[in-house]
Write a structure and sequence with these properties.
- It is a single chain.
- The relative contact order is 0.10.
- This protein starts with a helix and ends with a helix.
- It has 4 helices and no strands.
- Helix content is 78%, strand content 0%.
- The protein has 102 residues and is mainly alpha-helical.
- Helix 1 packs antiparallel against helix 2.
- It is rod-shaped, with a radius of gyration of 25 Å.
Length: 102
Amino acid sequence: MTTSWSLEFAVADMNTAVQELQSDLRELPSKLAEESPATVIDAVQLFTVTSLLIEVSTRVEGVVDAVDTLASLAAFRSADAKPEASETETKAINPDSDEEAH
């Protein structure tokens, strides 16, 4: 099975954004030390939202990996793949064979 390049690109882009966000968070405490207490309270909310975004991105990556694993185990074919000759011949001879089996 082939994987979606756009999906791989989106996950890589998400991971890059998470790394940039984590880097910015590491720099934030030194900047907050110079600010007023009200700014520190606002920063707590920022840390909470940032933490949730990082958690969501981790979960999304886990789901993408799980779907890829399941697709591999199910042996899905690419949409561009052509059916094998025996499948085409069987359907041409008896097109209702799938419906009768169910």
